[in-house]
Specification:
heterodimer, A: 153 residues, BH3618-like, globular, B: 77 residues, alpha+beta, three-stranded antiparallel β-sheet, 30% helix, 26% strand
Chain lengths: 153, 77
């Protein structure tokens, strides 16, 4: 099937690429169907594009690349709903917000996106009893110019 | 919207399986006990609002040159 994306243009995806968010996403309760867009498998960044709203895409980051000690405990009820267990760990992403400059990018560690790709189901989890907040800077020391311009390694 | 007046110790029953009890009122603070099935998630309003607001901001399109930069950006692990 073909979906429209403001950011990526027309995307051809398979039914099986669709990740269902049965609860929607806070702020977008009606958006229950997304697809992951990975531009570069080596990058800690990817996108979560709505399959129904062309304009709606979230920039996702791999939290563990930036916050090595990031951790949280999921409720049994969430484990059950997403079909995850010790043997079937989920994929974990955090939503990034870019205001004006890329260097000021923040991520929401308080509400990670947890996905079971085998079951094609995901949910944004609001963590309880945690010190994490919605705006953690990814680049607290600024961006090193070389990192940006040279890329690669 | 329904607005109800309750006294400490009194309850509100919502549907078949949610019960909200007013435990105590002290100054500006009202202490509630909420009994609900586990699959019903309960959040403090401001926490949920903060996450919804952050998602709204995150969904605002960012310009394309920045995206290209992002693609080139590799973080040393």
């Amino acid at each position: 099937m073909i979906i429209q994306s403001t950011r990526f243009g027309e995307l051809t995806i398979a039914e099986t690429d669709i990740i269902n968010f049965p609860h929607g996403i806070p702020g977008f309760p009606e958006e229950k169907s997304f697809v992951a867009v990975v531009n570069d498998p080596g990058s800690p960044f990817s996108f979560l594009q709505s399959t129904t709203e062309a304009y709606l895409a979230f920039l996702l980051a791999d939290p563990f690349t930036f916050f090595k000690d990031y951790e949280f405990v999921l409720d049994d009820q969430v484990d059950q709903e997403l079909g995850i267990s010790k043997d079937k760990p989920p994929q974990v992403f955090v939503i990034a917000t870019v205001k004006e400059k890329l260097a000021d990018m923040t991520v929401n560690l308080l509400a990670p996106i947890v996905i079971n790709s085998q079951k094609s189901i995901g949910r944004q989890i609001v963590l309880e009893k945690t010190a994490y907040g919605t705006r953690h800077q990814l680049f607290p020391y600024g961006l090193i110019e070389q990192q940006v311009t040279q890329g690669g390694r | 919207m329904l607005a109800l007046t309750r006294k400490p110790g009194e309850r509100i029953v919502i549907g078949d399986n949610i019960v909200v009890t007013v435990i105590e009122i002290r100054g500006d603070n009202i202490r509630l006990a909420i009994d609900a099935p586990r699959e019903i998630k309960i959040y403090r309003g401001e926490l949920y609002d903060a996450i919804a607001a952050e998602n709204q901001q995150a969904a605002t399109p960012i310009n394309m040159p920045d995206i290209a930069m992002l693609k080139a950006l590799q973080i040393k692990k």
